[in-house]
Amino acid sequence: MIESELFGHEKGAFTGANTIRQGRFEQADGGTLFLDEIGDMPLDVQTRLLRVLADGQFYRVGGYAPVKVDVRIIAATHQNLEQRVQEGKFREDLFHRLNVIRVHLPPLRERREDIPRLARHFLQVAARELGVEAKLLHPETEAALTRLAWPGNVRQLENTCRWLTVMAAGQEVLIQDLPGELFESTVAESTSQMQPDSWATLLAQWADRALRSGHQNLLSEAQPELERTLLTTALRHTQGHKQEAARLLGWGRNTLTRKLKELGWSDSQLVCKD
């Protein structure tokens, strides 16, 4: 019961309330209370919280005497509180009471430069806890970690480093040592807004399989094949007219001719009508 947790209760306030219990506000009197995921707080509890912030006092559940407290509040949420206010799911007056000093903590995907340093730190912490030598990250592995989506943010990265400390075969962590679900979650996030049969979805799935197999230099492998496919399709669509195919691809004719040579195609392999 969240009200009892925050504000405490009197003896006999409800079944099982055999003694008086101080809530978090009383326990934090003279200090700071951290309220996590406040955006999910029920409206009736929001009302009680607003009264504490406005008046500096509250009533225990089942109580009749006000309890005065002096507590500083730090609140956190993953929700968009302005949107919750517009939807009627969060009190506007409470929002403005809380929104005094606002700190935005961006997700890992918005501060990728922090990922390698955090990973090395968590590997060292896990090694100390387990009494083993800290694992090292291969440069390719470090780059792969930086590219991942990390929907679980820092906690997910920390847990991954703990897992690698136990499960990675060698002292140096290779790409193939990474748990497969990391790539699956990244592909799922990056393709969630794509059509299931779109070329981007299929390409992302191919890249996922290749990375999990330890492939490197994916771009140098994929780019010629992509150009080959586009060229073939454009030439087929134009019945071999290279100038028209170049226009469809957004290239000049000289660029198309150069690409054909790079791919090892000769005019004898084409049905050209230029």
Report on this model:
- With 274 residues, the chain is mainly α.
- The protein has three domains: 2-98, Rossmann fold, CATH 3.40.50.300; 108-211, Helicase, Ruva Protein, domain 3, CATH 1.10.8.60; 218-269, Orthogonal Bundle (Arc Repressor Mutant, subunit A).
- Helix content is 51%, strand content 6%.
- It has helices at residues 2-7, 24-27, 43-55, 81-86, 92-98, 115-130, 139-147, 153-167, 180-191, 199-212, 218-237, 242-249, 253-262, and strands at 32-35, 57-58, 67-68, 72-75, 136-137, 172-173.
- The strands form three sheets. It has a two-stranded parallel ribbon.
- A hairpin with an 8-residue loop joins strand 2 and strand 3.
- Helix 6 crosses helix 8 (153-167), helix 11 (218-237) crosses helix 12 (242-249) and helix 12 (242-249) crosses helix 13 (253-262).
- The longest helix has 20 residues, at 218-237.
- It is elongated.
- The termini are far apart.
- Residues 190-194 have low confidence and may be disordered.
- This is Nitrogen regulation protein NR(I).
- Pfam families: AAA_lid_14, HTH_8, Sigma54_activat.
- One of its GO terms (molecular function) is ATP binding.
- It is found in: Cytoplasm.
- Keywords: Activator, ATP-binding, Cytoplasm, DNA-binding, Nucleotide-binding, Phosphoprotein, Repressor, Transcription, Transcription regulation, Two-component regulatory system.
